[in-house]
Specification:
Elements: E1 15-16, E2 25-26, H1 30-34, H2 36-47, E3 50-56, E4 59-64, H3 67-74, E5 81-82, H4 86-89, H5 99-102, H6 113-128, H7 132-148, E6 158-162, H8 163-180, H9 184-198, H10 203-223, H11 229-234, H12 242-273, H13 287-297, E7 303-309, E8 313-315, E9 318-320, E10 326-329, H14 330-334, H15 362-382, E11 387-388, E12 410-414
Parallel strand pairs: 1-9, 2-3, 4-10
Antiparallel strand pairs: 3-4, 5-7, 6-12, 7-10, 8-9, 11-12
Helix pairs in contact: 6-15, 7-8, 7-15, 8-12, 9-10, 9-12, 10-12, 12-13, 12-15
Length: 422
């Protein structure tokens, strides 16, 4: 990505981001999506830790690409920054397509203080009931059915498929529905709403889709409780209203669906393109190592963890305006040369799950990690000869300032792929 040449090579101390309003980096551009790491390197050289960006045309924000600066901001306990976007929202058109991803909702992600604790505890408690052995079995069953149904198109002796649409997306969908206790017909409506959320469909449409589907789930679980996340949320001591329950479900499903499939997809790209994972080296490298590396190098949510200064505040020599979004680039921060040595084997420092009081809840992290590792292992055990159908540089990445997501993952594999045993 080439930056405008009318800006200074490096910022001076005590600068204001308003000084560079006309040269903000456009995170939503196809150019940025094609090679964000090159963009992050150029940003770092030109701007330092804090970068003036646009997250949508005419919507300014600050992108944090310095690891230590991100930790300082994310660990702030609501003294200088707030997770509540409502004051900012008054400056944004109500039909702004990215609003569903960033607007206020009564959930832990968009709340502070007592309400944040209440929503977060209810969600984490509900997820705690997901047994890891049961989760493994869910993934195994879903994987077996999907591999058995792989397409038969292509020239002998090989077949072709898009792994996202034939395996990854439906597997995550099936497992999330089972975890939530969601019947297929409601799950299909929820999946459509979740896809619309990440594709920047207008706010009114997205929210209407979520409200209708999740209200049906709330009513179902009040009438027919089960051993699932939805029932545990409905019955939680926090006493969540139907409206609040809808938005906890939005968080659970949306955070699990799109980022979950992106974590699997991005990890598979690494495994299929890096010789360390092809078995020709000195020893076996587990899938978990590749997942850890992706969480640091190419996390499924690359730029998120949004927070808002409560008043104009100086951070890392930059004045941040009140109420304007400050977005942490988990991808850029985890690749900050000050902390990234290239050793991902003990990468608890990465920001793939966020940091501070609003980081991804513990039990959500463990479930997402388990699903990703098991989904990849099941696939590669069944189809060990799987390989990309196009050169890695020809893979297309979906534009969007928040996610790191492929358009498709085309692969080839032997016509007689063995079934997964169950």
């Amino acid at each position: 990505m080439t930056f405008p040449q009318d800006t200074q090579p490096r910022p001076s101390a005590n600068r204001s981001l308003g000084d560079t309003q006309d040269s903000r980096v456009k995170l939503y551009s196809a150019e940025f999506a094609a090679d964000p790491h090159a963009a992050y390197r150029e940003m770092r050289q030109r701007y330092g830790s804090l970068v003036p960006v646009e997250i949508y045309p005419g919507v300014p924000a600050t992108l944090v690409i310095g690891y230590h600066t991100a930790i300082e901001i994310l660990q702030d306990n609501n003294n200088r920054f707030s997770a509540d976007p409502r004051r900012w929202q008054t400056s944004v058109r109500s039909d702004c397509p990215i609003l569903p991803m960033v607007e206020w909702r009564p959930n832990a992600l968009r709340s502070d203080g007592v309400e944040h604790h209440r929503y977060r505890k209810a969600t984490n408690d509900a997820l705690e009931g997901v047994d890891q052995h049961d989760l493994h079995d869910m993934v195994e069953r879903a994987a077996a059915s999907l591999v058995a149904a792989f397409p038969t198109t292509g020239s002998e002796p090989e077949r072709t498929a898009d792994l996202i649409t034939t395996y990854i997306q439906p597997l995550v969908f099936m497992v999330l529905n089972e975890i939530l206790g969601c019947p297929p017909e409601i799950g299909a409506a929820i999946a459509a709403a979740s896809a619309a959320l990440f594709d920047s469909t207008d706010t009114e449409t997205v929210n209407a889709m979520f409200d209708d589907a999740f209200l049906r789930l709330v009513k179902l679980k009040r009438a027919e409780p089960g051993d699932d996340v939805a029932t545990r949320l409905v019955q939680h001591a926090a006493g969540l209203s139907d409206h609040e329950l809808i938005h906890q479900f939005v968080t659970c499903f949306s955070a699990g669906m799109e980022p979950g499939q992106n974590l699997i997809t991005n990890t598979l790209v690494l495994i299929l393109t890096d010789s360390r994972f092809d078995g020709s080296g000195s020893g076996f490298i587990p899938t978990s190592t590749a997942v850890d590396e992706i969480l640091a190098m190419d996390p499924p949510l690359a730029n998120y963890c949004i927070t808002y200064p409560l008043q104009p505040i100086q951070v890392a020599g930059v004045w941040l305006p009140a109420d304007q979004p400050v977005i942490t680039s988990m991808a850029a921060c985890s690749n900050d040369p000050q902390i990234n040595t290239g050793d991902y084997s003990r990468n608890g420092w990465n920001l793939g799950w966020g940091a501070g009081p609003h980081q991804c809840p513990q039990h959500a992290r463990s479930a997402a990690y388990r699903i990703a590792v098991d989904a990849i292992d099941q696939l590669l055990d069944a189809v060990p000869e799987l390989r990309l159908a196009v050169p890695a540089q020809d893979l297309q990445w979906r534009p969007g300032g928040f996610h790191r997501s492929l358009v498709a993952l085309p692969v080839v594999f032997p016509a007689a792929a063995p079934p997964i045993s169950t």
